[in-house]
Write a structure and sequence with these properties.
heterodimer, A: mainly alpha, MetI-like fold, 78% helix, 0% strand, B: alpha+beta, D-Maltodextrin-Binding Protein, domain 2, Dipeptide-binding Protein, domain 3, 2 domains, four-stranded mixed beta sheet, four-stranded antiparallel beta sheet, 18 helices, 23 strands
Amino acid sequence: MNSWWFACRKLIGGIPLLFGVTLISFTLMVYFGPDLTYELLGKNPTATAIAEVRHSLGYDQPFWHRYLMYVQQLITLDFGLSMVKDQPVTELLQGAIPVSIQLLLPGFIIGNILAILLAMKAVQNRGKWPDKTIMTFSVIGMSVSFLVIIIGCQLIFSSSYGLDLFPVRGWQVHDKNEQFSWLAYLNYVTVPTIALVLISLGYNTRFYRAVLADEVNKDHINTARAFGHSDQKIYYQLLLKNTMVPIITRTLFSIPMVIISGSLLLESYFGIPGVGLITYEAIIAGDQPVLKAIVGLTAVLFVLVLIGAEILYRLFDPRMGATQK
Amino acid sequence: MADTKYLLYLSLLVLLLSGCQEQQNTPEKNTADTEKVYRHSIDGKPTSLDPIKASSVYSNLLVVNIFDTLYSYQYLARPFQLKPNLATTMPQISDDGLTYTISIKKGVKFHPHPAFKDGVGREIVAADFIYSIKRSFDPKNRASGAWLWQNKIIGLDDWKQAGADYDKDVEGLKSLDDHTIQISLLQPYPQLIYSLAMGFAAITPREVVESLGAEFGSKPIGSGPFILDQFNSEAAYLLRNPDFRQEPLDLTAEGYSAARHEGYGLEALADRSPPFLDRLEVHFINESSSRWQSFTKGSEIHYTTVPKDKQNTVLLRKDPIELHPKITSEYHHSYGMEAGFVYHGFNMADPVFGYHPDAAQNNKNKALRCAIRSAHDWQQKNRAFYFGLGTIFPGIIPPAVPEYDADLSTASIEKDLMAAKKMLADNGWQTQNLPEFEYHVTGSVLQKQFFEQMRGFLNQVGYPNQKIKYHPYPSFGNFNQAIKNREAPFFFLGWTLDYPDAENTLQLFYGPNQTPGSNNFNYQNPAFDALFEQSSTMLPSAQRTALYRQMNQMVIDDCVVISGLSRKKIHLWHKNIITFPDREIVGGFHLRFVDVQ
């Protein structure tokens, strides 16, 4: 009940944040975003045609009127039609967001778990060859461009020049009866997942190693050692639990990016119709209804994640709950 | 011990990831073994599939397969030849060229949709065509094809002014009966028939458009050979229209010539009614490496144009074009020139490079433009950016149209540094007084490379580096806005022909079309305008061609444009596919004739 009350208070406290984010992003869109008018004009436009297009796009409405319309859309979750694709924005996102989640979730989970395990291994062997090896590969992973990794993975695992094991492009994860097929899903998600794990592993491992290394010298760990606890208990129960706050922060705050932003490069190169590509195209074209929806939903998700994170902080570190009183 | 455990965990993970290898290359969903599926690829993305918004080649490619147009182009004939599509014959044109009477085929039905009675597509009637043209003039629709019929059809512009009420008649658009259309013009418009083969003129059902509203652009319902099944940011999936009219393919009438088309298996299509596919997939792939890997994999896309970065792999020789034996043994290929061209243009409304009220300065500016043109090296541009495959031609009538003059002097496309320097010196231009040269483009790495090359050309005639500025825009919309607002003194653009008639490029220089119209150069030449007006009502003839060529020469003499180069595309497709691809002007009409062996 205490947590519910805490969540409600945080939710109410998030409202000004939402207004702030939407107002700033909307101002940027209106005054600095691409003007769609000149993308949509025919080949021999007149001044009247330009005015008509501007009117149909709502560009001739006062700023505050447009902003209030945006807030209304955000509350009703009805963002109208994409200005470019003639498709309801909600329909567009309903189709794309699950695809992005399916695409990125395995890589996100595997990347984080693997990084924690490697970081733990490095911390257990600080200064020794396993630590050095892991850190060297982390730096290499961080140094290689995502694009190079994607093209490399495609070449190695998918193309006829390489192992030719997986599809180069596509996302046909449903069977003949329109049912989700795990086999087909694995077929399409494996190479993007490998690419995602490779690119995130370096950053994550270094981060988690730093967090764990900082904790491993604390008094309570030394005390546990003095008590004669096993390495497994020390590292995977005591150490891990005490480093959960920064770990939760890093993982939870990545979730809105996974859900909403997707991964433009993965989706482009693997031909996956996710939300990253839709966002990119909307930014380039100045498709404001789509951008408004994505910015608004990202802000809402961040508020929710913020609340979720704080509840989890209190779970792992009761002192944080105490400071809230 | 702990090390071994972690290694085991890692191995399990790898095993899990690789477990799916066994079902690699699984056929796509819904694809029975007997289904004929063809996967086409294009290098850009369509936006709306509403015909009135089909302004890009990518949208048009899909629109002409989902909808019907009255006319289309013969599949194989080059130069491009029109043929009846939904119309029964070519139009009957009155002697004064003002009235077109067109009869349409009977029994042609729209695709099924709940907006129709019992959900079954109803028959297309003449009123559907009239409704479809009116839609381009409805201000609510953001249509981009109205320019084709603006001030051309009697009463159509007035209909728009009067509030665009679809229940009100337009004098120049009549249905004489359910299957006969009559179009009345304000003045002869020989290009009208070409406009009726464009996606903009595709026929849409009123009840479906009204039930879907603007969503019609993402859920299009037409009467074409394919029905849209799915459409997302990566691909469009279309199914065969089982009710498409039976029209056996007459290869001879479509322009088949053994010399050009033998060896592709097209003969097997003779006397069969298209479409031949059960499923057509059009994949939108910008990334050339991904497209190439998908194509060469063998089990994914069946067709691609050769990406620029793969031309070294594919080409053995450029002139004449010869492909590497490994490519020709594995794939069919063809190549063709684009129906369009790229060019640099000056904004003549800019007093620094263009027209100046002072006659002496005006002449000086013209000399400066001509010197810049002489400094420009098309051959080098062709080698650097088009792999030496482009066709360089003088003026603004490209080789793709019948009015092209192969004997025209090439002086305007030849690099002549001596002449450029002399022109500058003779007209008092020195390093100190040369104006700042701004190069306006949509920002990209490629465009920056174009700029660097242009800067190099200008350096050679004494233009100092600090006076040459790169002016990129974040999107084409912003760039276009700058041009329409006359803020770009010099720009680099491409033009894709809408129809095979040089009028389509000459109108870019017609005075009344000045910005925000299509005359981005703001070129004003009364003599040119008079010739344009005279030729605009003429049917194709030697006399009209002579007028076109006179206009072309005027633009060359005035150094308004540095033009031009028509790019060449190499098409590759798998050997089990029967097709002869060409998206120039014919758009996507060829896709209905694709078959899978």
